[in-house]
Amino acid sequence: PDALTNERLALLLAGKNNDSSWMSWSNGFIGDVYFAQANYAEALKYYKQSYDIVSGVRFMNEIASASIHLGAAYEKLGNLGEALKYERKGLSLAMKTGSKDHLKEAYRNLAIIYARRGNYKPAYESEVSFKRLYDSVFNKASENKFTSLQMQYGFDKKQDSIKAETVKKEAISKKEINNQKNIRNFLLGGLVLMLGFAGFVFRSLRISRKQKMAIEIQKNRAEQSERFKQQFLANMSHEIRTPMNAVSGMTDLLIEKGPRPDQVEYLTAISKSSDILLHIINDILDLSKIEAGKLELESIDFSLTDAIKQVGDTLSYKAEEKGLQLITHIDDSIDDVVVGDPYRLNQVLINLGGNAIKFTAKGSVEIVVNKVSEADGQLSLRFSVTDTGMGIPADKLQTLFESFTQANSSDTRKFGGTGLGLSISKQLVELQGGNIVVESREGSGSTFSFTITYLAGSPEKLQQRIAQEQRIDGNILNGLRLLVADDNEYNRLVVNETLRLKAKMQIDLVTNGQEAIQMLRQNDYDVILMDVQMPVMNGIEATKYIRSQMPAPKSKTPVIALTASILRADLDMCTESGMNSYVPKPFKAWQLIHTIADVTG
Fold first, then answer.
1. Contacts of 448 (CB under 8 A, 6+ apart)
2. Comparing 186-195, 368-377, 401-410, which segment has the lowest mean pLDDT?
3. Report field, pTM of the whole predicted structure over 0.85
4. Considering 114, 253, 318, 537, which has the largest number of Cβ atoms within 10 A of its Cβ?
């Protein structure tokens, strides 16, 4: 607050004195304060004012600085096109002025922007240029050492000249010559000691600075690596989920259109294979979110009976295929409704149960819930998954919960899987305050068990939530007019056909955000389904334009994001742009209907 007050005062005084330089600097400093507070929209406003002022008077160094700051603000706000434009301009001007500080900042920002856009080659090249500029700092120390040696050489040369002159002067007494020599040696020795001490101090400072710089570089590299990984995961999610939406959606459409019995078998196989692939993708994304500390747990009332039944229904098909008996049991003394995260509980039990079925050739798989303790409205439960399978060798038990690990190297080829299920299960249990253990003997089956403590729940709240989450009949959408913007023709087809099967409505289709804006200018829509990643203009940019540039009531048109990413940062970006809600790809018909009904009232 003090910084803003003083900088605004400086800006006022600069304006009264018509001092362009100080007006530009003050606007930039105010932008820096807002940037530090993560208020990037306000930072952008003041950076623009700074840029406009210096552009008018053509101060090249100040224009470079303003451009770089503008690019950084646009990057934080998700407008990567504008960010790239200003960072490139800042880099070009910094090259002309020779400012190493501006060059370093521009290269660092460009590396981040290119990485977020998925352009990893220029991102890497920018990071290398940034590092080289950092390393050039150490060259200054070499110059200082050279200057010191040059001074010593000049001194020695001068002393040699004195010596030669002394030899020529035969009139000077031997005693006087010896005195001069002693004085010279004394001075030289003192200078050597001083230079040695100075060199020691310089080397100590240099090592300290070098170590500090190395730590900073390693920190930046680690942060950059994490950003690259998150961007890669987001891109991977989008590139896989987008075609999967078409595969899953069209399969569901064919099943609803009454195919022959033999075709139903094939279509069911395709649908189940899509679900397996989606499960693998979710495992990888969950692991990344857990490692980054960004996985969020729900806390809602749910029924243990319903949760265990859902797990049993999910696993029953696999168990029947192998001729296994699948048994589920809940201790009768346990209150059915508790407060916690039912999705993550199901995820752990399905992982453990799926593994048990996978590694069991005959016999049974049993899922049991027992009460451990109950006090002060808290219920501690033990969940156990026991199988009659091949068991686990004793020497493999210690590494069983590590990522990408299976008990035997041949298991991946024989049984499939990524080796992520147990690692994620362990971490999900620990996030919920529990712990997971395994008991197994090779050839005699295994038992995986974990404990979680839940709060006692409210059956009334559970019924209210179930009523709110019930699937809505598609006829509720009859008469609506929708606009669908998606660059993938198969996804457009899936959305169009799915909604037309469920309701009578008018649907217009476009391929990018710019076309969506043009259609909205010409027509009135009840809701817009907007893909996030599109060419020409993406869904984020299009929504921001609709909210800020179009007149009411068109600017208030509900917008639903159709997104292939489920990363929290990407979903937050959708909300910040003005979108009302989102539907993740691949989606089910009821998800789409429920979300449209919700945003349209």
1. 352, 355, 356, 384, 385, 436, 437, 438
2. 401-410
3. no
4. 114
